[in-house]
Amino acid sequence: MKFGSLLVTSAIAVPAIALAVISQTGWPAAAPPPSGFASPRTVTITPGTLAYRMPGEFLKSERPVDAPKEDVRFRRPFEIMAYQVSISDYGQCVADGACEAAEGASDNKGALPATGVSFRDATAYASWLSGRTGETWRLPTDEEWAFAAAERFTDDTLGIEETNNPAARWLARYRSEAEAAKGRDPEPKPHGHFGANSKGVYDLAGNVWEWTSTCYRRASVNHQGDVESSTDNCGVRVTGGQHRGYMSFFIRDGKSGGCAAGMAPDNLGIRLVKERPSLFAALKAFWRSAAG
């Protein structure tokens, strides 16, 4: 009995010790990527809470209203690319036959971000990059993008409630975004042009909007502001930028059409999140590194 108790105690204590070490030293380094392919630089976003306004169209008594807010808690850190995917990086995916050529600029002088890419292009690139690095890359959710953007995330509230004119909110959004766009140069700029935000992520909310995995939502709320029902339209995805965008998944140039609300983005680009290993994989890597 005592022996069994010792086994149980050890089974609990050993992983706990390993987790304590990992929490202090960080996750063990991943195995070298295949063919020596360099993994993109990332920024670690530490845990915290975000007062998050939901994306999409929200109706109260069949009239459009501001979306409700909710507190989103990020319990674990996550890693996001420090810069947007560049033309040269995306070009390697094209050269490998895994991505379609982008419709944006092809001149790579100054490490320009890849633009003229659709949601489908972005997911194809994530799949290719995962295969080349041996890591798991994916598009961020809108919640993750907003949390990483910090002070550069724009709350898209309009403060217009239960108007009898459905076009009033659309016009108000358009005017707000048009005012913010005054003097904006839509030409893509080199990496770092728009600087880093408070979390060390570069060029967020510049003039390249970034695809997220979040679907467009149409929801009904009650008089208390709580969501009663909702329908997701995954043919339209949320994009993060100077303002929130809603774009059809096959669109590569926002200005050509496919924008579901407000002004179209200047450019569409890619920034990915790198998945951290599971607890089991982290423990396995810990024991492998500890064994020498």
Describe the structure concisely for a colleague.
The protein is α+β, with helices and mostly antiparallel strands. It has 2 domains: 2-27 and 280-290, no CATH class; 53-276, paralog of FGE (formylglycine-generating enzyme) (Alpha-Beta Complex). The chain has helices spanning 2-25, 87-95, 119-133, 142-149, 166-180, 279-290, and strands at 42-45, 48-53, 57-60, 63-65, 69-74, 78-81, 137-138, 209-221, 227-240, 245-248, 268-269, 273-274.
Provide key terms for this protein.
single chain, 292 residues, alpha+beta, paralog of FGE (formylglycine-generating enzyme), 2 domains, six-stranded mixed sheet, four-stranded antiparallel sheet, 6 helices, 28% helix, globular
Description:
With 292 residues, this protein is α+β, with helices and mostly antiparallel strands. It folds into two domains: 37 residues, no CATH class; 224 residues, paralog of FGE (formylglycine-generating enzyme). It is built from six helices and twelve strands. Strands 3, 4, 8, 9, 10 and 11 form a six-stranded mixed sheet that branches. It has a four-stranded antiparallel sheet with strand order 1-6-12-7. Strands 2-5 form a two-stranded antiparallel ribbon. It is globular.
